Amino acid sequence: MSITLSGQDTLTLRTAAWGAVSLMSAAGAAGSAHKAATEGSIALTSATGPVGHVLTKAPKGVKYGKTVAALADQVLPALTAAMSLLKQQDPAEAGNFRRTVIVAVEAATRPHKGEPSPTMTEMARKITEALDAS
Question: Is residue 2 part of a domain?
Fold first, then answer.
């Protein structure tokens, strides 16, 4: 089954996935935000299938806001919307998108020695909850 994504659909997927990496970076410890963003970005650009083709580029022209709360206000609903639109067209691609975002979130936590901080753990939970809300 193939999927057909409009320009707006593509923007939603990119905003959701790249925004999730931004949320994890913002939740990281000082000094490691850049490493978290880099690791998460590598995970997104390593995606395969139709989702992989969409996520090769970060969204252009998206203004996430100046606070983590403003970023979350855009990204968390976009994650739910992305899952919903993919499930309608191709449930396998919805699963691919979900796994890709989860891998990016996990990759963003890797630069930290030991366990991820409680802040990162909570942000990962919110991202997973948004993915599963559709």
Answer: no
User: What total of structural domains would you count in the chain?
Assistant: 1
Using alpha carbons, list the distances in angstroms from residue 30 to 20, 25, 33, 61, 111. Answer: 18, 10, 6, 26, 12
Distance CA 45, CA 63 (A): 21
Radius of gyration of the chain (CA): 14
Alpha-helix residue ranges (DSSP H) falling in 28-117: 33-45, 49-54, 68-89, 91-109
Locate 87 and state its tokens: 């499930």
Q: What is the pLDDT of residues 49-68, one digit of tens each?
A: 999 999 999 888 777 778 99
pTM for the full predicted model? 0.92
Answer yes or no: is 114 within a domain. yes
